[in-house]
TrEMBL record, chains A, B:
One of its GO terms (biological process) is L-leucine biosynthetic process. The lineage of its organism: Bacteria, Pseudomonadati, Campylobacterota, Epsilonproteobacteria, Campylobacterales. This is 3-isopropylmalate dehydrogenase. Its EC number is 1.1.1.85. Its cofactor is Mg(2+); Mn(2+). It is an enzyme of class 1 (oxidoreductase). Binds 1 Mg(2+) or Mn(2+) ion per subunit. It comes from Sulfurimonas lithotrophica. The keyword Manganese applies. It comes from the Bacteria.
Amino acid sequence: MKTYKIALIKGDGIGPEIIDEATKVLDAVASCFDFDFKYEEVLMGGCAYDETGDPLPQETITAALNSDAVLFGAIGGEKWDNLPREKRPESGLLRFRKELGVYANLRPAVVYDELVNASSLKPEVVSGVDLMVVRELIGGIYFGEPKGRDENKGWNTMVYTKDEIVRIAHNAFNIAMERSKRVCSIDKANVLDVSQLWRETVEEVAKEYPDVELTHMYVDNAAMQLIRDPKQFDVMLTGNIFGDILSDEASMLSGSIGLLPSASVGAKIGVYEPIHGSAPDIAGQGIANPIATISSASMMLRYALGENEAADRIDAAVKRALKEGYRTQDLAQYDAKEVCSTSEMGSIIANYT
Amino acid sequence: MKTYKIALIKGDGIGPEIIDEATKVLDAVASCFDFDFKYEEVLMGGCAYDETGDPLPQETITAALNSDAVLFGAIGGEKWDNLPREKRPESGLLRFRKELGVYANLRPAVVYDELVNASSLKPEVVSGVDLMVVRELIGGIYFGEPKGRDENKGWNTMVYTKDEIVRIAHNAFNIAMERSKRVCSIDKANVLDVSQLWRETVEEVAKEYPDVELTHMYVDNAAMQLIRDPKQFDVMLTGNIFGDILSDEASMLSGSIGLLPSASVGAKIGVYEPIHGSAPDIAGQGIANPIATISSASMMLRYALGENEAADRIDAAVKRALKEGYRTQDLAQYDAKEVCSTSEMGSIIANYT
Ligand SMILES: CC(C)[C@H](C(=O)O)[C@@H](O)C(=O)O
Ligand SMILES: CC(C)[C@H](C(=O)O)[C@@H](O)C(=O)O
């Protein structure tokens, strides 16, 4: 019997509630197979700051590096917004990504048939949407030097090296090979020097993938096309901040930000987390949607542990729960047969695995 | 009788066709009032490069500075995409904005009742949307130094000085005073130093406008909220690249990018232009929608010339044409009674002024 070591980072706000449902589902699916999980719970974000004075204690990095994968809830909240920058929860998260070296952030945007009416876009526009944003995660303007500010000026640098672009591009092309074999690279090459290097480099990498069709789009146009006709996209390859913006935008196609998972990979250990935040306003009420986190656990099974069959079971269980009309609060208006709590939804999905 | 001097920049692609309709409407409305127009046509963009080797000849800057306002079509096209950066049409446009000093780009996103079905968003989500993106236009990462690239690295700098933020913030607050008195400032202050200065400075300026409610939103969330619930916004205040992305996204709320005008102001001479591009694929076919340009001419009357009554007439004429079911190709599917050409649409609106 194989035991996978999972570093669990529950974080702040609704983080603990949704992670509890994900482990419930993981344990349920494991019992059908020949493996189980050993969880090591570690701190990051506001709760880590409160307890240790540091939003990312060294212990958390160590635990992550000694695990098979990291399952992560969400961090942050107004409570910590006025701390000095390096003490804020977000700083912990950014340092964590950097320490682990997870340069590729994969954010699928998929529309469930059952929830096609939940989007603010017309059903015919979103039905069947299945795209993947591949976002560079540890470079670009998030980390570029020089950066800083004084009384009268603030500055950050959007910088990419060729090597950084090459590796994320390979990532996107490899993913496209498993999908519809189309990559759309997003940049602002008509204005930015860094985007010109980005575009040229992506072109070069593309030569190694003759079966994949590569197109380019300016980021402003992409923001428009994502709403106008999202089905035109298969894999969207972007830098850090453009990917931040576009993947959040894309998440709205699905109708609720509570549905979409993500994986941050590229290094030995990957991080799996919902794309939504810690939603402090609804924390502790048992109304958060755990599906994004449960689907992140499924991505973890698939990408980190190679347990594809178990991942398939979770995905099928999520679909079945939705199909049968189980809905958390956020989706209560959309063909709900039964509105259920966070933990009820977790139990239903666990049962169906 | 007053004569207004208008510098006309038709530009590339559909630029000439749509500008011709705007001047048709301007002349028609002028004939009802005590003023007329003297147009000076000058070159910018690809056509300027073809003729003079420079996408922005000095003559164009001079003509603009000697005018009462600039009415501008669109520039660019694949034909010029492989020129060296400084020869490209876009470089001409960016230099033009900078030379004129038009630091405030105003991009209204309004949904016409008559076209509420034309959006890819649900009618109930977009009906009644009336927001204004106030985008800083001559600073930020578009112009920041250092910038450049070599074989292995590319870099640009997102930089704002306090003074730059103060002046665009005043602009946004003043506009909000004439509207619903709400400003939402968009930044990425949880990651970027330059955004922290932005946020603090906007807070300071807000103190001078006690009647205006100020909120802040991260740019990723804003990209999401614009689709989830666009009616929450009145004035959105943003930097250059965030404004580029968000205003293009917002334009989709209206159903066609062929509908929305913009004004670039803040200096002695303002530039009035549709937000769409030069659409070389449909150029010369007489199917482009001239409404965005006609509405830009209306903004010019209002903001540059103080001819509010004439501007109101144009706005009413546009609405009437739409209400009566006249549609250009791009909107032919949406309650069209008659599909008309670019110049027919211009004539109808001119008649109705
Ligand atoms: C919290 C924030 C720093 C983070 C980011 O911008 O990367 C978040 O928006 C995300 O996308 O994971
Ligand atoms: C053509 C391009 C340089 C320009 C910009 O990015 O400012 C355009 O997208 C716009 O928004 O006017």
